[in-house]
Amino acid sequence: MVKWNRDFSYVIGLFTADGNISSDGRHLEFCSKDLELVKSIKKCFNLNNKISRKQHKSKSLTYLEIPKEYFCDFLRGLIDGDGTIDYFMHPESREKQFRIRIASASKNFLEWLSREINKFLDMKGAIRQVVRAYQLCHYKKDSIRLVDFMCYSGNINFLSRKFEIAKLMKARTWRNWDTRTA
Q: What pLDDT does 101 receive?
């Protein structure tokens, strides 16, 4: 039986985003160009193995059974793998608006994820279709609430470039904030 903890939950989120089971069914494969993520997985599981660079995205993913107390860690790993933390210029007000987007080839998975986030934070994201995938999007204050939910401690695993944008988003006013997309 697997013993769940916050590091394991974070890595499950990363694998949900960028991993798969090998064609022989005996190995886990993780694909990322981000060396920080690969090192994070190796650290969490004390691994010395080679990590594969090929990827097999699945459209059949529907849901995962994640213990409630570790859902925030899972979500942080998922966003580090298949998420974007950035801002956009609102077309009418021309003000910068913060957003978090999570991509998946499975619309069913994103619908499940949206329901789970709603259970914890009483908020619903918008699912939209993009090229060869779907995105679950949260905007403005909902994005800030997601960051607070996922980043509850200074002693957690996270992708530093995304975490830095989230910190800047919370620390600065929108008018003075000019950061790049993570």
A: 95
Does the residue 182 lie in any domain?
A: no
Contacts of 171 (CB under 8 A, 6+ apart): none
User: In angstroms, rounded to a whole number, what is the distance separating the alpha carbons of residues 22 and 182?
Assistant: 29
Domain count, the chain: 1
- pLDDT bracket for residue 119 (50, 70, 90): very high
d(CA 113, CA 99): 16
3-state SS, 16-33, equals: HHHEEECCCCCCEEECCC
**C-alpha span between 19 and 165 (Å, rounded):** 25
Which is it for strands 83-89 and 133-139: parallel, antiparallel or unpaired?
unpaired
In a domain? residue 77: yes
| pTM exceeds cut of 0.90 | no
159: left (phi over 0), alpha (psi -120 to 50) or beta: beta
Domain that holds residue 93: 6-176
Q: What is the pLDDT of residues 53-105, one digit of tens each?
A: 556 556 778 889 999 999 999 999 999 988 999 888 888 888 878 899 999 99
